[in-house]
Design goal:
The chain contains no helices and 13 strands. By secondary structure, it is an all-beta fold. The chain has a domain at about 1-25 and about 65-150: Jelly Rolls. It comes from Pseudozyma hubeiensis (strain SY62) (Yeast). This is Cupin type-2 domain-containing protein. InterPro entries: Cupin_2 (IPR013096), OryJ/VirC-like (IPR047142), RmlC-like_jellyroll (IPR014710), RmlC_Cupin_sf (IPR011051).
Length: about 160
């Protein structure tokens, strides 16, 4: 299972911090597999920690965060593009079907396909469907501390209704 983890360079521009494959673990007699893409163990989330969230322990017997979260599915029509935007959250974006391009304000781009996961860590980004087919992405958003670069907080910007 592929994941893309974003971060920031020393100037505060969004970067791709990790683009790698996560090992699937066979965890049941029926051969269900789990892949921990990212997890956190503090609140609010610190988007500047250098630790790899795939190596953090998961919470046994829990499937939610008592402090709240938002789960959102986005269906994007063919040849559509979101505005460039940043949210003060940690977002898990999972492509359910279709293909979508992620573009960061630093200029980097990655194409995600069904099953790929993007972990957005307060980065400025947009989503672009360059195909003639619909795409669906599942998002989990969890409130985070603002990213601070050279003493300046990078806060929500760019998306209507924020």
């Amino acid at each position: 299972m592929r994941r893309i983890v974003t971060g920031h360079d020393a100037k505060g521009l969004a970067i791709i911090d990790k683009d790698d494959e996560i090992e699937r673990l066979d965890v049941t007699p029926e051969h269900a597999t789990f892949a921990v893409m990212w997890s956190t163990n503090q609140w609010p989330i610190d988007n500047q920690t250098p630790a790899d969230g795939a190596t953090k322990p998961t919470f046994s017997g829990r499937s939610h965060n008592d402090n709240g979260s938002v789960v959102r599915f986005v269906d994007m029509p063919p040849n559509a593009c979101s505005p460039m935007h940043r949210t003060q959250t940690l977002d898990y974006g999972i492509v359910i079907f279709g293909e979508v391009e992620l573009e960061l304000d630093g200029g980097e781009k990655r194409t995600l396909k069904a099953g790929d996961t993007c972990i957005q860590r307060g980065t400025n980004h947009l989503w672009r469907n360059n195909t003639d087919k619909w795409v669906r992405i599942a998002f989990v958003l969890i409130h985070s501390k603002p990213v601070v670069i050279d003493g300046k907080a990078l806060t929500d910007e760019g998306f209507p209704g924020q």
